[in-house]
Structure formats: C-alpha cells, structure tokens
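Practice problem: predict the structure.
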Amino acid sequence: MKLLVIEDERSLLESIIQYFRQEKFLCETASSYHEGIRKVEDFLYDCIILDLNLPGGSGLQLLKYLRQNKKSEGVIIISARDSLDDRIAGLDLGADDYLTKPFHLSELNARVKALIRRKYSEGTSLLELGALKVDLLSRNVLVENQQIALSKIEYDLLLFLMTNKNRVVSRLAIAEHIHDGPSEQLPSTDFVYSHIKNLKRKLKEKGCNEMIQSVYGLGYKLSS
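Answer:
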C-alpha cells in the first residue's frame, strides 16, 4: 500500500513516515500545498494523510481539488484545529476521516487500515479473487488455504493488481506504485517485468495459472 503524507512540520512528518515504513507501507511526502498538488496530479496513492495548515495554501483547498478532479484516494485529515466547524468542513469536502493533533501513531495507523479495508474489501480485511485470498491485516497470501511466500515488492505488486482486478494497469503505473522511493526518482520501468515473472511463477506453483495476463503494448491485468 502506498501513502502520501502532506505535512509541513518536519519532525511529525518524519515520525509518521518512519512508523508506516515499519508497517510495510510505501511512503511519499510533500511539505507544501503546491508540492502536494504535483504529487496527486502525477501519481496514485491508496491513502493521503493531509494537514490543513500548509505553506502556499490550505489542506481544504487541496482536498477540494482532489474531489473536483475525481481523485479516488482515501483522505485522512490531521490537524491542530479541533472545532466542530473544521471537522464538518473537512468531511463535507470529501475527507474520509479527521484526526486532531496531537495523536498516537498507532491510532493513525488503525484509521489508515480501516479506510483501506472500506475502500478495497467492503470493510473486511480479506481481498478475494477466485481461489486467491489476501489478508490485509496479516499480509498472508493464500490459495486454497496454502500460503504463498512473497517478497515485500511481490506482495505490494499483487495487492495493486488485486485492487485493480479485471482492469489493465500500465507498467508505469505499477512501477510508480511499487517503487520504494520518491516516484519522481523512478529510474525506469524495466524492473516490473522480473517481479511480474516471479509472481506469475509463484501463483502457478499453487495452481493459479494465467491469473496475470500481459496485454501487449498496454500493461497487465489480474483476473480469475
């Protein structure tokens, strides 16, 4: 899963990133309104953690931009503003949750995971496609109750394909989503092929033949 944290307080930003990387999330950051806009224009994220007070503009303006442009990322507002009016304004503009500073990182983690469960698996912790199951909490991948041992990148790749099941996703979109580092520093998309190949092999070994299909000139599609 890939997070974007938009926060200008450096110490808090670093704490959030460090915590979520330990939780096996891929994390990117922005520390101003305009940097946040550039990130959401160019890349896709599973969840955005958004501060309201940003250099160059308001987090509420950024949230409004997201929803006006049909961006589907889940958004959790983090803010020192704790008035009812601020909460209502954020939720009315399309935020999925609102957390008042200061907060425990474990609570933010729980809210991010709850948002992702609502977004991708109808509130459960289980994603399913045919005989293939992915448990979002334990990070276990099962086929007919047999566990598949995946690397971190292979797990992130499978999860990205499952959350886009039956849709063609480009090699570039995959590369940006599983790249462990700032997306703008992505060297090339060549590494995607080897990870797709390894994931296909591991699924085939458990009886899931041809679930990942190559679509010539476009990308890849996961289907049952």
